[in-house]
Amino acid sequence: MPTVRQATIDLLRQHGLNTWFGNPGSSELSLLEDFPSDFRYVLGLQEMVPVGMADGFAQVTGRPALANVHTAPGLGNAMGALYNAYLNKTPLIVTAGNQRRIMQNQKSLLTNEDAILVPRPFVKWSAEPATASEVPAVLAHAIHVAVSPPTGPVFVSLPMDDMAYELNDAQVADIEVIRKRQVTQAGGFRRDLAKEIAGRLTAAKSPAFVVGGDLEHSGAWDQVVQLAERSRVAVWTTPLPGLSGFPENHPLYQGLLPPGAGWVSEALKGHDLVLVLGGPVFRYYPYIPGPYLGADTALIHITSDPDEAARAPVGDAYVADVRAAVEALLEEVSEDSRESPEARPGVPRPERTAAPLQASDLWSAVGHAAPENSLFVSEAGSNEVAITRYVRPSKPLSHMSAVGGGLGFGLPAAIGAQLAAPQRPVIALMGDGSMQYAITSLWSAAQYKVPLTIVVASNGEYGVLKQFGDIEGANGVPGLDLPGLDIKATAASYGVNTYEATDTDQVAELLRAGVTDRERPTLINVVTERVKKVSSRLT
Hints:
This protein is an alpha/beta fold. Helix content is 36%, strand content 16%. The protein contains 20 helices and 18 strands.
């Protein structure tokens, strides 16, 4: 008779989940034995790495991905990456083994007591099957929940002795039905609502769009560009976005909103209507006093996430499929005669400048040297604002960051993104401090010959924390300097091609060479200037 393990593999194959990212432990061996030849297992050396790789992979493919981690302590290791995936709304199926059922009562080694509670609140749903025969049904349930809007990670705990359980004929027949069934999300947007919003948009004197990453997840990139051009509006990206939601080199695009209430209201001053599409209203950090919006500014919010709509402090919210809503608005909005907003200044090519480089020189050199179809994954702390100013990708799924802000996202996600798009150049834009959180990702990149290019801004400090300290008035904080980091030696020890760029011309030259090499990962270390004192005023 077929076993639960065989039925589980068949179910996952049916759903296209044949690439697994994982770090196996003893309680996962019964699931992984005789691993199928049509499946691929991508190993990370610590659990947050495979979850991060799966995050990047799923976002680029637009399909769910599976992360297989170890029981209780391994799941604990993965929680930082799971936090980012939850706020990224990434559809992940995370599985972990558990001790045999007959040994759990004694709390034997590797027992994950109350296993479904451990990953909360960073999953949409978590479960451990009540009986072994229910494993395929619970996994199918998890997959359907993960891909239902708002998408997000789910967790299933699998006791190790469940895998060998032999199914009877009735159980096999039930699982066959479960394996083949589909759940289709048929989103729509009422025409009367589209007419109402379109009327408010047309009547506004100076409207603006604020876009979020869900526009890209839902495949609404071209439609929102068309709607913005037809309406002639200024377009911003919502604070802490994950994906930018709009071509960053477009003349209507104004950049990334800074993540403070006072900053946002100041940036949107003069706009009488703000239409927020596919993102929250708004996520902030640090605390910047001020009104959420100016007294003369109204806000309309369209999101697929009921909780985003419910928790927003301002505006009228509509919960709907984001792409359907944008398409419905396009049918109701005509070409507007209002004057288009002034475009951002272009990015000048930097003159040859020796290290230590200013952030503006480093990232403008990267932006000009990178191929047009590059996919950037950024986690560079104090450099993030400069990156959004000087690196301006033009295509969908071209700039990823962690919505959650949990460090350790960048390197694993970039590897997963490159595995998902092997023909596309993926460039990780990293800080020397943030990359330490998932430094073992470099081993995975080298072992699997992932042609990722990594640019590291090395300033020997947690620069973003110093900036927050200035804003908060927190002086004399210890642990913000990072002496003794040798990025090149560390990367080389994992088998990555490593280089030191000593000026902006070398940055450009080494970057072009790195993206051309499709056989191995490349790391380019660049010494940058230390952060300067900042204030809470919007600059």
